[in-house]
Amino acid sequence: MTTETSSHAAQPATAQGGSSIGAYLAAHLRDYGLLFALIAIMVFFQIVTDGTLMRPVNITNLFLQNSYIIIMALGMLIVIVSGHIDLSVGSVMGFIGAFAAVMIVQEHVPVVLTVLASLALGGVIGAAQGYWVAYWKIPSFIVTLAGMLVFRGASLLLLQGQSVGPFPMSFQKLSTGFLPDVFPMAMTKAIATGVGAFNFNLLAMLIGVAVALATIWAGLRSRARARAYGAESEPQAFFWVRNLVVLGALLFLTFKLATFRGLPNVLLTMGVLIVVYAFVTENTVLGRRIYALGGNVKAAKLSGIKTERLTFLAFVNMGFLAALAGLIFAARLNTATPKAGFGLELDVIAAVFIGGASMAGGSGKIVGAVVGAFIMGVMNNGMSIMGIGIDYQQMIKGLVLLAAVIFDVYNKQKQV
Fold first, then answer.
1. 102 DSSP 8-state letter
2. Per-residue pLDDT tens for 278-324?
3. β-pair partners for 164
4. pTM over 0.85
5. Residues whose CB is less than 8 angstroms from the CB of residue 321 and which lie 6 or more positions away in sequence, other chains included
6. How many angstroms separate the Cα of 258 from the Cα of each of 63, 64, 199, 206?
7. How many whole angstroms separate alpha carbon 353 and alpha carbon 358?
8. CA atoms within 13 A on the CB side of 21
C-alpha cells in the first residue's frame, strides 16, 4: 500500500519534470507570444535602420516618447479588466497640461503646489466619470465619450486657443531630467575607459544591475512558492533561459543609457508604477476582486464584493494617472497646446489590447500592457526612422491591433 501511494505521488512530479518546453510554450502562447513579438520587431527595425534603433540617444527617446502612454496604459488595463473603457484619457491629459501651464506660467503658482493640485484634479475628474458609471449604471463608453468632448473643449477654453509656455526648469525635469551620477568623477572615468566609453554614468549602471538581480531573485522566489503549493511550474531549462534573456536585456539597456546621460527621471517613475501596479493586481485581495468584477459582475456582487465602489475607484485611479501623464507630456514639450493628447486614448487602448487584455473584461496583465505599449512605441519610432509616412503608420498600427485581437479570440476558442 505504501509503495502504491509513493508511485502515485511520484507521477505528477515526473510529468511535471518531463514536460517539454514546446508544450509549455503552447500552453502559455498568449503570455510569451507578446515578448517574442517585441523582440522580433526590435531586431527587424535594428537591421533595417542600420543600428539606429538601439543607439543610446534613441533608446532614451523611446522611453521619453512612450512614458505617458505606458503610465496611462496601467490605469486603462484596470478599467478594461473591470469590464469598462475610458475614451477621455487623451483629453484629460491635455486638460491637465493646460491647467498646469496656466497655474505656473500665468498665475506663477509654485511648481510643487501645481503638481499636487493637478494630480488631485485628475482624481476628481475620474471620480466624476466613475460616479455615473458605477452608481447610475450608465455605460462607460457614453460617459467617457462625453468626457472626451468636454475636456477637449475645456482645454481650448483654458488656453484661449493658444500655446502657453515655457515652463521653469524644475517642472521640465519631470520628463527631461536625468538621475545624476553621485560617484566621484575619477571612478566613473576609470570605468568608462575600461569599457571604451567616454561618458559613463556609474550610478545608472549599478541601479540596472540591482534591478536585474532583483528580477532573478523574484523569479526564483515565485518558482519556489509555486512548488511549495504544488502548482504547475515552467520547465527548469526554460526558466533559466528566460531569466538569462531578461537579465541580458536589462543590463544591455542600462549600459546603453549609462553611456549617454544615465537614467531618465521619467523611467524611474515608470518603473516604480509598474512594480506597484503589478504587485497590486497579482498579489493582493484588491487585485483579485478587480479580476472577479470583470469576469462576472453578478457573481462578484453575490460573493460580497462592493462592485460599485471598485468600479468608482478604477476610474479615480485612471484620472490620477491621466493627470500624471499630462504633467509629463507638458514638461516634455515645454509648453501646453490646445491639441495636446489628441488621439492618444486610441494608442493607450490599443497598447492594452495588444498586451493581451480582453474586451469582455476579467483578463489581462500589467506586464502585457507595458509590452504592448513598447510594441507600439518601437513600431512608431522604427517607422519614423525609416521615413514611412504617418498615413501608412496609422494603417500598419491598425492592422497590428486587429491581428492581436484575432489572436486573442482564436486562443480562447481553442481552449473551449
1. I
2. 999 988 999 999 999 998 889 988 888 999 999 999 999 999 999 99
3. 336
4. yes
5. 71, 72, 74, 75, 122, 273
6. 14, 16, 8, 10
7. 7
8. 8
